[in-house]
Write a structure and sequence with these properties.
Length: 346
Protein backbone atom coordinates (compact mmCIF):
# COMPACT_ATOMS: atom_id res chain seq x y z
CA UNK A 1 0.00 0.00 0.00
CA UNK A 2 1.39 3.40 -1.10
CA UNK A 3 2.25 5.76 1.73
CA UNK A 4 0.14 8.95 1.98
CA UNK A 5 2.95 10.91 3.64
CA UNK A 6 4.40 13.81 1.53
CA UNK A 7 8.11 14.25 1.08
CA UNK A 8 9.28 16.83 3.64
CA UNK A 9 11.09 18.92 0.95
CA UNK A 10 8.26 18.92 -1.59
CA UNK A 11 6.35 21.93 -0.22
CA UNK A 12 9.42 24.26 0.05
CA UNK A 13 10.50 23.29 -3.48
CA UNK A 14 7.06 24.08 -4.88
CA UNK A 15 6.97 27.41 -3.06
CA UNK A 16 10.39 28.34 -4.47
CA UNK A 17 9.30 27.41 -7.97
CA UNK A 18 6.16 29.53 -7.67
CA UNK A 19 8.23 32.44 -6.38
CA UNK A 20 10.64 32.17 -9.32
CA UNK A 21 7.82 32.08 -11.83
CA UNK A 22 6.15 35.06 -10.18
CA UNK A 23 9.41 37.05 -10.28
CA UNK A 24 9.94 36.43 -14.03
CA UNK A 25 8.70 39.08 -16.47
CA UNK A 26 5.32 38.40 -17.97
CA UNK A 27 4.89 37.06 -21.48
CA UNK A 28 3.93 40.56 -22.66
CA UNK A 29 7.38 41.93 -21.73
CA UNK A 30 9.26 39.80 -24.25
CA UNK A 31 7.57 41.27 -27.39
CA UNK A 32 8.33 44.76 -26.12
CA UNK A 33 11.98 43.89 -25.61
CA UNK A 34 12.19 42.25 -29.05
CA UNK A 35 10.58 45.19 -30.85
CA UNK A 36 12.64 47.74 -28.92
CA UNK A 37 15.84 45.90 -29.78
CA UNK A 38 14.76 45.61 -33.41
CA UNK A 39 14.04 49.34 -33.58
CA UNK A 40 17.40 50.17 -31.98
CA UNK A 41 19.25 47.89 -34.39
CA UNK A 42 17.39 49.18 -37.46
CA UNK A 43 17.88 52.73 -36.25
CA UNK A 44 21.65 52.19 -36.36
CA UNK A 45 21.40 50.33 -39.69
CA UNK A 46 19.39 53.20 -41.15
CA UNK A 47 21.97 55.72 -39.95
CA UNK A 48 24.77 53.70 -41.57
CA UNK A 49 22.79 53.28 -44.77
CA UNK A 50 22.13 57.00 -44.87
CA UNK A 51 25.84 57.70 -44.42
CA UNK A 52 26.68 55.30 -47.26
CA UNK A 53 23.99 56.83 -49.45
CA UNK A 54 25.24 60.34 -48.75
CA UNK A 55 28.81 59.22 -49.46
CA UNK A 56 27.58 57.73 -52.72
CA UNK A 57 25.76 60.94 -53.58
CA UNK A 58 28.90 62.97 -52.90
CA UNK A 59 30.86 60.53 -55.03
CA UNK A 60 28.25 61.00 -57.76
CA UNK A 61 28.74 64.76 -57.58
CA UNK A 62 32.50 64.30 -57.82
CA UNK A 63 32.09 61.86 -60.72
CA UNK A 64 29.83 64.34 -62.46
CA UNK A 65 32.49 67.01 -62.10
CA UNK A 66 35.09 64.59 -63.46
CA UNK A 67 32.75 63.68 -66.33
CA UNK A 68 32.27 67.33 -67.18
CA UNK A 69 36.05 67.79 -67.19
CA UNK A 70 36.41 64.71 -69.40
CA UNK A 71 33.74 66.04 -71.75
CA UNK A 72 35.57 69.34 -71.98
CA UNK A 73 38.76 67.42 -72.69
CA UNK A 74 36.95 65.38 -75.35
CA UNK A 75 35.72 68.56 -77.00
CA UNK A 76 39.27 69.84 -77.05
CA UNK A 77 40.49 66.59 -78.60
CA UNK A 78 37.72 66.74 -81.20
CA UNK A 79 38.76 70.25 -82.14
CA UNK A 80 42.40 69.15 -82.26
CA UNK A 81 41.51 66.23 -84.51
CA UNK A 82 39.54 68.48 -86.83
CA UNK A 83 42.47 70.93 -86.96
CA UNK A 84 44.90 68.11 -87.78
CA UNK A 85 42.65 66.95 -90.59
CA UNK A 86 42.61 70.49 -91.94
CA UNK A 87 46.43 70.57 -91.70
CA UNK A 88 46.65 67.32 -93.64
CA UNK A 89 44.48 68.71 -96.38
CA UNK A 90 46.45 71.95 -96.53
CA UNK A 91 49.80 70.12 -96.66
CA UNK A 92 48.57 67.77 -99.37
CA UNK A 93 47.27 70.66 -101.47
CA UNK A 94 50.52 72.61 -101.02
CA UNK A 95 52.57 69.55 -101.94
CA UNK A 96 50.51 69.01 -105.05
CA UNK A 97 50.84 72.66 -106.13
CA UNK A 98 54.62 72.56 -105.57
CA UNK A 99 55.07 69.52 -107.71
CA UNK A 100 54.96 66.90 -105.07
CA UNK A 101 53.30 64.55 -107.53
CA UNK A 102 56.21 64.63 -110.06
CA UNK A 103 58.32 61.44 -110.07
CA UNK A 104 61.88 61.65 -108.78
CA UNK A 105 63.39 60.81 -112.25
CA UNK A 106 61.59 63.78 -113.81
CA UNK A 107 62.75 66.06 -111.00
CA UNK A 108 66.38 65.11 -111.70
CA UNK A 109 66.00 65.83 -115.43
CA UNK A 110 64.23 69.13 -114.92
CA UNK A 111 66.51 70.39 -112.15
CA UNK A 112 68.69 73.38 -113.14
CA UNK A 113 71.47 72.31 -110.80
CA UNK A 114 72.28 69.71 -108.12
CA UNK A 115 71.75 72.40 -105.50
CA UNK A 116 68.21 73.08 -106.74
CA UNK A 117 67.51 69.36 -106.75
CA UNK A 118 68.77 68.98 -103.18
CA UNK A 119 66.79 72.01 -102.06
CA UNK A 120 63.62 70.74 -103.67
CA UNK A 121 64.24 67.31 -102.20
CA UNK A 122 64.65 68.84 -98.73
CA UNK A 123 61.39 70.74 -99.09
CA UNK A 124 59.57 67.61 -100.19
CA UNK A 125 61.13 65.60 -97.34
CA UNK A 126 60.02 68.22 -94.82
CA UNK A 127 56.54 68.15 -96.29
CA UNK A 128 56.44 64.34 -96.11
CA UNK A 129 57.64 64.48 -92.50
CA UNK A 130 54.98 67.04 -91.62
CA UNK A 131 52.34 64.88 -93.24
CA UNK A 132 53.53 61.82 -91.30
CA UNK A 133 53.59 63.72 -88.01
CA UNK A 134 50.15 65.14 -88.60
CA UNK A 135 48.77 61.68 -89.42
CA UNK A 136 50.35 60.26 -86.25
CA UNK A 137 48.95 63.02 -84.07
CA UNK A 138 45.54 62.61 -85.63
CA UNK A 139 45.49 58.88 -85.04
CA UNK A 140 46.71 59.24 -81.44
CA UNK A 141 44.07 61.90 -80.76
CA UNK A 142 41.35 59.66 -82.18
CA UNK A 143 42.53 56.74 -80.01
CA UNK A 144 42.52 58.95 -76.88
CA UNK A 145 39.11 60.27 -77.83
CA UNK A 146 37.63 56.79 -78.16
CA UNK A 147 39.27 55.61 -74.90
CA UNK A 148 38.07 58.63 -72.93
CA UNK A 149 34.53 58.27 -74.29
CA UNK A 150 34.45 54.58 -73.32
CA UNK A 151 35.91 55.31 -69.88
CA UNK A 152 33.39 58.08 -69.18
CA UNK A 153 30.47 55.89 -70.28
CA UNK A 154 31.66 52.98 -68.13
CA UNK A 155 32.09 55.20 -65.07
CA UNK A 156 28.59 56.58 -65.46
CA UNK A 157 27.06 53.11 -65.77
CA UNK A 158 28.87 51.85 -62.66
CA UNK A 159 27.91 54.94 -60.70
CA UNK A 160 24.22 54.75 -61.63
CA UNK A 161 24.14 51.06 -60.68
CA UNK A 162 25.78 51.68 -57.31
CA UNK A 163 23.53 54.62 -56.48
CA UNK A 164 20.46 52.55 -57.32
CA UNK A 165 21.68 49.75 -55.03
CA UNK A 166 22.34 52.20 -52.19
CA UNK A 167 18.91 53.76 -52.64
CA UNK A 168 17.21 50.33 -52.54
CA UNK A 169 19.18 49.37 -49.42
CA UNK A 170 18.26 52.61 -47.65
CA UNK A 171 14.59 52.32 -48.59
CA UNK A 172 14.43 48.68 -47.47
CA UNK A 173 15.91 49.44 -44.05
CA UNK A 174 13.68 52.49 -43.65
CA UNK A 175 10.59 50.44 -44.50
CA UNK A 176 11.44 47.78 -41.89
CA UNK A 177 12.24 50.51 -39.37
CA UNK A 178 8.88 52.20 -39.94
CA UNK A 179 7.09 48.90 -39.42
CA UNK A 180 9.00 48.19 -36.20
CA UNK A 181 8.37 51.73 -34.96
CA UNK A 182 4.65 51.22 -35.51
CA UNK A 183 4.70 48.02 -33.46
CA UNK A 184 6.70 49.68 -30.69
CA UNK A 185 4.34 52.63 -30.50
CA UNK A 186 1.32 50.31 -30.51
CA UNK A 187 2.67 48.43 -27.49
CA UNK A 188 3.48 51.72 -25.76
CA UNK A 189 -0.04 53.02 -26.34
CA UNK A 190 -1.48 49.81 -24.87
CA UNK A 191 0.75 50.20 -21.82
CA UNK A 192 -0.34 53.82 -21.31
CA UNK A 193 -4.00 52.91 -21.75
CA UNK A 194 -3.61 50.27 -19.05
CA UNK A 195 -1.70 52.71 -16.84
CA UNK A 196 1.01 50.14 -16.13
CA UNK A 197 4.64 50.13 -17.23
CA UNK A 198 6.08 46.96 -18.70
CA UNK A 199 9.46 47.51 -17.08
CA UNK A 200 12.86 48.37 -18.44
CA UNK A 201 14.00 47.02 -21.79
CA UNK A 202 17.70 46.21 -21.54
CA UNK A 203 19.17 47.14 -24.91
CA UNK A 204 22.71 46.57 -26.09
CA UNK A 205 23.94 50.11 -25.81
CA UNK A 206 26.93 51.38 -27.80
CA UNK A 207 30.09 52.21 -25.84
CA UNK A 208 29.51 55.48 -24.01
CA UNK A 209 32.28 57.79 -25.20
CA UNK A 210 30.84 60.93 -23.62
CA UNK A 211 33.46 62.87 -21.69
CA UNK A 212 31.41 65.98 -20.92
CA UNK A 213 29.31 66.32 -17.77
CA UNK A 214 26.19 67.26 -19.73
CA UNK A 215 24.83 66.45 -23.21
CA UNK A 216 21.69 67.06 -25.24
CA UNK A 217 18.98 64.45 -24.56
CA UNK A 218 19.05 63.32 -28.21
CA UNK A 219 22.09 63.07 -30.45
CA UNK A 220 20.60 64.88 -33.45
CA UNK A 221 18.96 68.09 -32.28
CA UNK A 222 15.92 69.53 -34.05
CA UNK A 223 14.05 71.91 -31.77
CA UNK A 224 10.28 72.24 -32.04
CA UNK A 225 7.91 73.64 -29.36
CA UNK A 226 9.85 75.89 -27.01
CA UNK A 227 9.59 76.50 -23.28
CA UNK A 228 6.79 78.89 -22.37
CA UNK A 229 5.02 78.73 -25.72
CA UNK A 230 1.23 78.66 -25.77
CA UNK A 231 -1.23 76.37 -27.47
CA UNK A 232 -4.37 74.32 -27.11
CA UNK A 233 -2.38 71.23 -26.08
CA UNK A 234 -1.30 72.71 -22.75
CA UNK A 235 -3.46 73.99 -19.89
CA UNK A 236 -1.17 76.96 -19.30
CA UNK A 237 2.22 77.25 -21.00
CA UNK A 238 4.60 74.68 -22.41
CA UNK A 239 6.78 73.53 -19.52
CA UNK A 240 9.67 72.07 -21.49
CA UNK A 241 11.57 71.99 -24.75
CA UNK A 242 10.45 69.60 -27.48
CA UNK A 243 12.85 67.79 -29.81
CA UNK A 244 11.38 66.58 -33.10
CA UNK A 245 12.66 63.00 -33.47
CA UNK A 246 11.17 59.83 -34.98
CA UNK A 247 9.72 57.04 -32.87
CA UNK A 248 12.43 54.80 -31.44
CA UNK A 249 15.17 57.42 -31.34
CA UNK A 250 17.53 56.69 -28.41
CA UNK A 251 16.97 59.17 -25.57
CA UNK A 252 20.04 59.96 -23.46
CA UNK A 253 20.45 61.04 -19.86
CA UNK A 254 21.46 64.70 -20.04
CA UNK A 255 23.67 64.17 -16.99
CA UNK A 256 24.60 61.59 -14.40
CA UNK A 257 22.12 60.90 -11.63
CA UNK A 258 19.49 58.57 -10.20
CA UNK A 259 16.16 57.60 -11.78
CA UNK A 260 13.49 58.80 -9.35
CA UNK A 261 10.43 58.13 -11.49
CA UNK A 262 9.31 55.84 -14.28
CA UNK A 263 5.60 56.12 -15.00
CA UNK A 264 3.07 55.42 -17.72
CA UNK A 265 -0.22 57.19 -18.30
CA UNK A 266 -1.50 60.73 -18.11
CA UNK A 267 -0.56 63.70 -20.27
CA UNK A 268 3.14 62.80 -20.41
CA UNK A 269 2.56 59.17 -21.43
CA UNK A 270 5.62 57.09 -20.65
CA UNK A 271 8.15 59.26 -18.82
CA UNK A 272 11.42 59.12 -16.90
CA UNK A 273 12.60 61.63 -14.29
CA UNK A 274 16.27 61.76 -13.21
CA UNK A 275 17.59 63.59 -10.17
CA UNK A 276 21.10 65.00 -10.60
CA UNK A 277 23.71 65.99 -8.02
CA UNK A 278 22.94 69.50 -6.88
CA UNK A 279 19.18 68.94 -6.76
CA UNK A 280 18.09 69.61 -10.33
CA UNK A 281 15.92 67.06 -12.12
CA UNK A 282 15.35 66.32 -15.80
CA UNK A 283 12.24 64.80 -17.31
CA UNK A 284 11.93 62.83 -20.56
CA UNK A 285 8.33 62.33 -21.70
CA UNK A 286 6.12 60.84 -24.46
CA UNK A 287 8.48 57.84 -24.70
CA UNK A 288 7.74 54.57 -26.49
CA UNK A 289 9.92 52.48 -24.17
CA UNK A 290 12.25 52.86 -21.20
CA UNK A 291 15.59 51.15 -20.65
CA UNK A 292 15.96 51.97 -16.94
CA UNK A 293 14.06 51.19 -13.76
CA UNK A 294 13.23 53.47 -10.88
CA UNK A 295 16.22 53.67 -8.57
CA UNK A 296 18.83 52.99 -11.28
CA UNK A 297 21.99 55.05 -11.43
CA UNK A 298 22.73 56.47 -14.87
CA UNK A 299 25.74 58.11 -16.48
CA UNK A 300 25.86 61.08 -18.84
CA UNK A 301 24.79 60.05 -22.33
CA UNK A 302 23.42 56.66 -21.27
CA UNK A 303 20.32 55.48 -23.13
CA UNK A 304 17.34 55.74 -20.81
CA UNK A 305 14.56 55.15 -23.32
CA UNK A 306 13.26 55.43 -26.86
CA UNK A 307 11.23 58.37 -28.08
CA UNK A 308 7.60 58.00 -29.06
CA UNK A 309 4.31 59.86 -29.07
CA UNK A 310 2.47 58.56 -25.98
CA UNK A 311 0.18 60.69 -23.83
CA UNK A 312 -0.92 64.17 -24.89
CA UNK A 313 1.14 64.25 -28.08
CA UNK A 314 0.28 65.17 -31.65
CA UNK A 315 3.33 63.53 -33.20
CA UNK A 316 6.64 61.82 -32.45
CA UNK A 317 8.92 63.97 -30.30
CA UNK A 318 10.76 64.09 -27.00
CA UNK A 319 9.47 66.45 -24.31
CA UNK A 320 12.44 67.49 -22.15
CA UNK A 321 12.15 69.43 -18.90
CA UNK A 322 14.54 70.77 -16.29
CA UNK A 323 12.97 71.04 -12.84
CA UNK A 324 13.96 72.27 -9.42
CA UNK A 325 12.10 69.29 -7.93
CA UNK A 326 10.92 65.98 -9.41
CA UNK A 327 7.37 67.33 -9.51
CA UNK A 328 5.49 69.14 -12.24
CA UNK A 329 5.30 72.90 -11.73
CA UNK A 330 8.97 73.60 -10.94
CA UNK A 331 10.27 73.73 -14.52
CA UNK A 332 13.01 76.02 -15.83
CA UNK A 333 13.79 76.95 -19.43
CA UNK A 334 16.01 74.02 -20.56
CA UNK A 335 17.99 75.84 -23.26
CA UNK A 336 19.76 78.48 -21.15
CA UNK A 337 20.15 75.91 -18.35
CA UNK A 338 21.97 73.52 -20.72
CA UNK A 339 23.93 76.38 -22.28
CA UNK A 340 25.30 77.31 -18.85
CA UNK A 341 26.58 73.74 -18.62
CA UNK A 342 28.35 73.76 -21.97
CA UNK A 343 25.52 72.45 -24.19
CA UNK A 344 24.35 75.32 -26.44
CA UNK A 345 21.32 74.28 -28.48
CA UNK A 346 19.42 77.47 -29.33
Amino acid sequence: MRSSRRHPLLVPVLLCAIAVLAARPGDDDQPTADVSAQVARLYEDAALATQRYEAGRQEADAQQARAQQAEARLDGERRETARLHEDLGRIARAQYRSGGGIPMAARIILADSPEDLMRDQHVFSQADLAVGNAIGRSRRAEVRLAADEAKAASAWRALKKRNAELADLKQGIQRRLDEARGQLQGQADASVAAGTCRGAVRLDQPPNQVTASWVAPVETVELSAAFGSGGSRWANRHTGQDFAVPIGTPVRAAGAGRVVRVSCGGAFGIQVVIEHPGGYCTQYAHLAAVTVDQGDRVTTGQWIGQSGTTGNSTGPHLHFEVRVTPELGSALDPLPWLAQRGVPLG
